């Protein structure tokens, strides 16, 4: 879950009411958020500690990724007030989109917010909000990249979004002092811990996306960096927002989230100016029906839900008027179409509401989950007798057998890195990996045991390790909508002054006895093992795993300074 830092004084000011920490924690729980911790820490550009709430919000709630969004939602929830509606003013500016950018980053959306008055805290929140959106909704800028610019510094009479050769993109990048072209800039940013990870998104493309103003000045090089030329400061009052994207819907969500946050610091807090986005070629934008997209789209979305559906899921005999009341608390304006049907207007910032079940969930939150549990739940008058799953019992038996043979059980990470693919193809890839160490779902237990052997190399030899756990495997069965399933495997490692092939072979035979089956070995050479020191493990004609001595290259890759033998079987 994303974690948002909110300075308590600022949050209470935006909500318009003071609460104790205990009272606020209860409100958080009621709304479906969690007050993770309360800390004293300095703000950015300050050394004075202030009380700060660390709030966990749902990953699908882009509108809650900033202090302003949390305050806007809670103000309606606490006071049961009517949700605010925005006014979109007619567009004065147009972004011309050239087809050269179509193959790399085809979409762009935009908006203008006027009459902003920044304080240092509001400015910090504005920057932090964009970072949170980039890491969550925007999937580390691969789907969307947000750029914000001081409207008074640029010539907005003609704004272009096109693709250019890296050598032709010459500008002074944000927080840089000299002009560089794209390639030179990337050489500088490779050392930047924050921006360096994004360079690969466009690095190998023939043309790079560029946004320029009417003077031909570069505003941004998405999805990497903005220009110093249009940099926002504390004195900025009019903000030009642009979001380039490969996913149009995510671009709308990100743009609307920025608007929802920054408008709270405007003297006209419910007004935003639209921008025309004109595509010169519709070939690369199949999601649009016409060449000009007038953005942002802040109109509410209309959905219907039946009272029968609400009562069935929530378990409470609510009236339509009560359901409308609880939906209001969640910023959704509902009206009664009939005694059994409600028409709900979902505001633009609630992009998480996709199905009537989401409306039912909001009714339940508005009513209060604790109230349902304490006073209204009807528990079934039934009794069931549970039992251990067969595969779990089998796994427990194998663990006991391996431990009895002197092997130490490991419980290792389910995620691994791309380099671990030497022991088997990894078909599960994380779209939003936090570190390069954990980017894939493991397909083998061996890499984890090799790393454990490396970490335990200074202990007395021999090292005897095992793990019995799940790995990911492709599954194209018709009833599997994910295409992936998990299978339980057993793997063991023996390492010492010699490879100990005979010792671990003995463990394999013992496991076979426990499983009431006979393993046979058939030689099969493989590049990751020493030639002649690897075999497939078979039951009859069915291959169920392998046993072998990893090569010197593999030992060096995992920093294991002694010979080892490993086996892995599907249990």
TrEMBL record:
Cofactor(s) this protein requires: Mg(2+)
A GO biological process held by the record: phenylalanyl-tRNA aminoacylation
Major localization listed first in the record, in broad terms: cytoplasm
EC numbers for this chain: 6.1.1.20
Ranges where the B5 domain occurs: 298-374
Pfam families for the chain: B3_4, B5, PhetRS_B1, tRNA_synthFbeta
GO molecular function: ATP binding; magnesium ion binding; phenylalanine-tRNA ligase activity; RNA binding
GO cellular component: phenylalanine-tRNA ligase complex
Compartments where found: Cytoplasm
Keywords from the UniProt entry: Aminoacyl-tRNA synthetase, ATP-binding, Cytoplasm, Ligase, Magnesium, Metal-binding, Nucleotide-binding, Protein biosynthesis
Cross-referenced SMART domains: B3_4, B5
PANTHER family: PHENYLALANINE--TRNA LIGASE BETA SUBUNIT, PHENYLALANYL-TRNA SYNTHETASE BETA CHAIN AND LEUCINE-RICH REPEAT-CONTAINING PROTEIN 47
Family stated for the protein in its record: Belongs to the phenylalanyl-tRNA synthetase beta subunit family. Type 2 subfamily.
Protein name per Swiss-Prot or TrEMBL: phenylalanine--tRNA ligase
Taxonomic source organism: Hexamita inflata
Highest classification ranks of the organism: Eukaryota, Metamonada, Diplomonadida, Hexamitidae, Hexamitinae
């Amino acid at each position: 879950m994303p974690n948002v830092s909110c300075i308590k004084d600022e949050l209470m000011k935006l909500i318009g009411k003071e609460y104790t920490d205990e009272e606020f924690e209860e409100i958080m729980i009621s709304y479906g958020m969690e007050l993770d911790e309360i800390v004293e820490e300095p703000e950015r550009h300050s050394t004075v500690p202030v009380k700060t709430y660390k709030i966990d919000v749902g990953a699908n709630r882009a509108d809650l990724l900033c202090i302003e969004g949390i305050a806007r939602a809670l103000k309606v929830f606490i006071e049961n007030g009517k949700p605010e509606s925005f006014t979109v003013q007619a567009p004065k500016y147009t972004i011309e989109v050239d087809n050269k950018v179509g193959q790399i980053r085809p979409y762009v959306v935009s908006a203008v917010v006027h009459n902003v008055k920044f304080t240092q805290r509001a400015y910090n929140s504005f920057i932090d909000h964009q970072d949170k959106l980039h890491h969550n909704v925007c999937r580390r800028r691969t789907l969307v990249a947000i750029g914000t610019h001081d409207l008074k510094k640029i010539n907005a009479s003609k704004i272009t979004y096109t693709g250019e050769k890296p050598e032709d993109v010459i500008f002074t990048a944000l927080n840089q002092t000299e002009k560089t072209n794209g390639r030179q800039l990337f050489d500088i940013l490779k050392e930047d811990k924050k921006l360096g990870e994004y360079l690969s998104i466009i690095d190998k493309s023939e043309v790079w996306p560029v946004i320029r103003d009417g003077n031909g000045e570069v505003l941004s090089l998405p999805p990497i960096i903005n220009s110093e030329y249009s940099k926002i400061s504390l004195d900025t009052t009019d903000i030009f927002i642009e979001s380039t994207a490969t996913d149009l819907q995510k671009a709308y969500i990100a743009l609307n989230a920025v608007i929802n946050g920054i408008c709270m610091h405007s003297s006209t807090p419910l007004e935003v100016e639209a921008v025309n986005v004109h595509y010169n070629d519709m070939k690369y934008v199949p999601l649009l029906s016409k060449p000009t997209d007038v953005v942002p789209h802040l109109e509410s979305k209309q959905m219907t839900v039946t009272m029968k559906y609400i009562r069935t899921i929530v378990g409470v005999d609510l009236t339509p008027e009560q359901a409308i009341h609880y939906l209001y608390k969640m910023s959704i304006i509902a009206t009664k179409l009939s005694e059994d049907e409600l028409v709900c207007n979902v505001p633009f910032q609630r992009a998480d509401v996709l199905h009537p079940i989401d409306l039912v969930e909001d009714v339940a939150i508005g009513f209060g989950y604790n109230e349902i549990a304490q006073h209204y739940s009807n528990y079934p008058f039934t009794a069931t007798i549970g039992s251990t799953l067969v595969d779990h019992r089998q796994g427990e038996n194998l663990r006991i057998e391996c431990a009895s043979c002197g092997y130490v059980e490991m419980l290792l990470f389910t995620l691994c890195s791309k380099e671990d693919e030497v022991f088997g193809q990894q078909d599960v890839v994380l779209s939003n990996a936090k570190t390069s160490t954990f980017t894939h779902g493991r397909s083998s237990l061996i890499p984890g045991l090799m790393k454990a052997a490396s970490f335990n190399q200074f202990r007395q030899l021999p090292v005897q390790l095992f793990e019995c756990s799940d790995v990911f495997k492709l599954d194209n069965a018709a009833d599997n909508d994910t295409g992936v399933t998990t299978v339980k495997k057993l793997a063991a490692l023996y390492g010492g002054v010699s490879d100990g092939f005979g010792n671990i072979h003995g463990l394999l035979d013992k496991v076979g006895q426990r499983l009431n089956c006979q393993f046979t070995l058939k030689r099969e050479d493989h590049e990751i093992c020493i030639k002649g020191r690897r075999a497939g493990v078979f039951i009859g004609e069915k291959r169920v795993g392998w046993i072998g001595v990893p090569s010197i290259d593999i030992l060096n890759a995992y920093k294991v300074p002694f010979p080892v033998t490993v086996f892995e079987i599907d249990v």
